[in-house]
Design goal:
Helix content is 24%, strand content 35%. With 455 residues, it is of the alpha+beta class. The chain folds into two domains: 14-235, PmbA/TldD superfamily (PmbA/TldD fold), CATH 3.30.2290.10; 242-455, no CATH class. Helix 3 packs parallel to helix 4 (223-236). The two termini are 47 Å apart. Residues 2-9 have low confidence and may be disordered. Its EC number is 3.4.24.-. Residues 41-104 form the Metalloprotease TldD/E N-terminal domain. InterPro entries: Metalloprtase-TldD/E_C, Metalloprtase-TldD/E_cen_dom, Metalloprtase-TldD/E_N, PmbA, TldD/PmbA_N, TldD/PmbA_sf.
Length: 455
């Protein structure tokens, strides 16, 4: 980002603050041991942030936050109790441990509870270039948000309104420790800027936007570029037409394609599986996607949004295939869900790390040309996904494609199918990866879906 969000940075004291949190974590572990806990784990964190919102050239909100807290979980055999506090004074820490112990003593034993196995704890801890702090400056953040909105509004006279622009900056440090002797520290920063604009008048108004997010502020797109892209996307949506009901190919742009991968991850996650609430029960080792399709998890990406040496239980993370040759290689498990299923943890306590979906096609324009005729989806609405059956029905907007080019915008439609069928019907994944997420995928073409329109 050419226009910096912040001024010169004072001395970075994050290491000292991590050491302080580590000392508090060790103190809590010792208190829990003294109280008779057989196992214990502690999380400590400090967060600071700045959020600015502007609209139509005026400042709407400026919010600075600074939070800290500790959470402790104790186990008495297989009875579990948890408590947390934002007060780090001695008396409060002691009371937090006492509360967690009291809760544990009044709960039923759960055979699956307890820390992850000690042998699985991470031995090598490293950082992944995720710490890029700077002194937060509200005045500069306001200037950047105003510049973003102004650049978008200046593109075309048809953009007569705005849903506003925002700039955010956050910094977080954390410590996880447990009674196996494991202690790990993490720190990360994040910056974002975005703008949403409105074009047209009355019932013909259309809204769209754009945003940029990065771990280092210099990796953000410029506010002018964000504003112009928000304007272009908004103008493209003017004068939409309806579509008749029918079966057509559907191309999800990269932003929307992420939600398809998210539905798959939810279906192969431990909580859904041991509750028997997933449409992909017993899917490990079976083909769910076409034979060329693959998803790899890589926790070790420099500047990755979800890079980590250890998961939420201290288990060492590892690079591995989640889907290979279309076959589900494993589930997404922490130690609790793994025990419930009679399996081993996959180092995913707290969720997946960086996912990369294999591409087998060119960029979005190439996929549109190859599709020839069908629907390009650029917006999804509603939550019409049944996690148990896989039935899928969501409101959508986008563009009708004819002869390999965008013909006209469409909205007021519903796209429907079943996720199992949809996954099997994926024809291409583009190389136009949307890098603004830990789920890195290009646009995804599904060979046939039901589009419910006006006729």
């Amino acid at each position: 980002m050419n226009n910096t969000l912040t001024q010169s940075l004072p001395t970075d004291d994050s290491t000292q603050r991590q050491q302080r949190l580590a000392g508090i974590a060790q103190q809590l572990l010792e208190r829990a041991r003294s109280a008779g806990a057989s196992q214990c784990e502690v999380t400590c964190n400090e967060d600071a942030g700045l959020a600015v919102n502007v609209r139509m050239g005026d400042v709407e909100t400026v919010e600075a936050t600074r939070d800290r807290g500790v959470g402790i979980t104790v186990y008495f055999g297989q009875r579990k109790g948890s408590a947390s506090s934002a007060d780090l004074r001695e008396a409060s820490l002691a009371a937090t441990v006492a509360q967690a112990c009291a809760i544990a003593k009044h709960t039923e034993a759960d055979p699956a509870s307890g820390l992850a196995d000690a042998a699985l704890m991470a031995q090598t801890l490293r950082e992944f270039d995720s710490w890029h702090p700077a002194a937060f400056d509200a005045d500069r953040a306001i200037d950047l948000a105003l510049a973003c909105e102004a650049a978008g509004r200046a593109v075309d006279v048809r953009i007569g309104n705005s849903d506003g622009a925002s700039v955010n900056a956050n910094a977080s440090i954390s410590v996880y420790a447990n009674s196996h002797g494991f202690l790990g520290t993490e720190r990360s920063t994040s910056y974002s800027a975005g703008c949403a604009l409105i074009a047209g008048e009355g019932e013909a108004m259309q809204r769209d936007g754009w945003f940029s997010v990065a771990l280092a502020q210099d990796d953000l797109e410029t506010p002018e570029a964000i504003g112009r892209k928000a304007a272009q996307r908004t103008l493209q949506r003017l004068d939409p037409r309806p579509l008749p009901t029918g079966q057509v190919p559907v191309l999800f742009c990269a932003e929307m394609a992420r939600s398809l991968i998210g539905s798959f991850i939810g279906a192969v996650s431990g909580g859904a599986l041991y509750r028997r609430a997933s449409f992909l029960l017993d899917s490990a080792g079976t083909r769910v996607f076409p034979d060329w399709f693959a998803i790899e998890e890589d926790p070790f990406v420099l500047r990755g949004f979800r890079s980590a040496s250890f998961d939420g239980e201290g288990v060492a993370t590892r690079k591995s295939m989640l889907v290979d040759a279309g076959i589900v290689q494993r589930y997404v498990l922490g130690s609790y869900s793994a025990r419930k299923l009679g399996l081993a943890t996959t180092a995913n306590a707290g969720g997946v790390h960086n996912l990369q979906v294999k591409a087998n096609a060119g960029d979005l324009a190439a996929q549109i040309q190859a599709m020839g005729r069908g629907l390009l989806v650029t917006e999804l609405m509603g939550q019409g996904v049944n996690a148990i059956t896989g039935d899928y029905s969501r409101g959508a907007a986008g563009f009708w494609v004819e002869n390999g080019v965008l013909a006209y915008p469409v909205d007021g439609i519903t796209i429907a199918g079943n996720l199992k069928t949809m996954f099997a019907a994926i024809e291409t994944v583009g190389n136009d990866v949307d890098v603004r997420s830990h789920v890195r995928t290009g646009s995804i073409l599904i060979g046939h879906m039901t589009v419910a329109g006006t006729g």
